[in-house]
Each structure stands twice: as C-alpha cells, then as structure tokens.
Amino acid sequence: MKNLVNLGSIPIDFGTLAAFYPDFKYPKDKISALEKKGILIRLKKGFFVVSPKIHNQVISKELIANHLYGPSYISFETALSFYGLIPERVYTVRSATQKRSKIFTTPLGDFEYVSVETIYYPVGIRQEIIDERYAFLIATPEKALCDLIIATPRLRIQSVKAMKIYLEEDLRIELSAIKNFESGIIKKCIESGRKKSELIHLLKLLKK
Predict the structure, then answer these.
(1) pTM to 2 decimals?
(2) 49, 69: one domain
C-alpha cells in the first residue's frame, strides 16, 4: 500500500502496478481486487490512478489528461478557465493532440482530444508545476484562445469588431484581461495554423 500512497495522484499503467506485486503469480487479479475495493480508479484499459482516499491528495484532471492520450496538452475552454479568463466552470477536460480526435469517458469525467496540425501543435505550450508535486503541459492563454477559434466549427469572424463581440459576448472574456497577451505566439499560430484571417483580426484587436 505504501507504493500506492507514494504515487499520489500520478496516473500509472498496468505494467508498473504489476511490478509492485512480484510475489503474486497473477498480479492482474490483485489489481482487479484493488479496483473493486475502490483503491484504484480505472481510467481506461490498463491505466489507473490511485483513489484520493488512499493518498489524501486532490486528483489533477489536467495531469490525467496529459497521460491518458498523448502527446497532448490542455487547451481550449479548459485552459481559458484554468487561467481565469472565462467565468464558466468547465466539466469536460479538452486537450489538443497530434493524434486523431478522441473522447474518453471515465469515473472522473470526460476527456476530449481535438486533433491539430503537426506543424501548429508545438506553438505556445508551457509546463505548469503544481505545489512542486507534479507538472502538466498546457497551452499559454494566447494559444488556448487560438486553438478554440480554429477548432470551433462554422465560426467565421470577418472583422475586428466581430472578434470583439465574439470574445466579450460569446466567451465572456474581459478585454482588459488579454491586453498583455504575447502577440508573438498569435503570429506563430497565424503562420502555421488554419483560420488565418480570424487570427489576424484577433491580433489587430490586441494591438488597438
């Protein structure tokens, strides 16, 4: 049990768990028993996280999202909510990935992954370190907003004024909160991503 406590909220695969029980002829049975007791939470086949009742730590959905399907990074509304840029509470954890789009339904909630172009993917990713205990990859605020604009179906923004309306009324983002956005990241998104005209309107709005 000590090994499980030491893991804390870090996700773990079946092979690593099995190594904790070398004396068991069939470690799969031991792991299944731990799951039935609620000690382990299965996120997908062969992938688990230790229950908070064992390690008394808050489970990081962001950390889980990075490990559940990758390479990926937290983005879209999830990142914007993390930074306090949108007021709504986000229930589905949304990430960007180079792989095909996918959704996982787990006991801890839904995790959605949206495919983005390989050349666009590495722009504006940072590492967030929490309490010196764990870290996860997340889009910068600028990249998260660009990701959302690019990935939203049928979103067509044809002027700076329309972009202002989209941010303030649709997303409920305060323009004062984005006045210090790094324009260089948005420029890189324009160079390597889709919806270039929409992102150019965003860049012009930030420069006003």
Answers:
(1) 0.91
(2) no
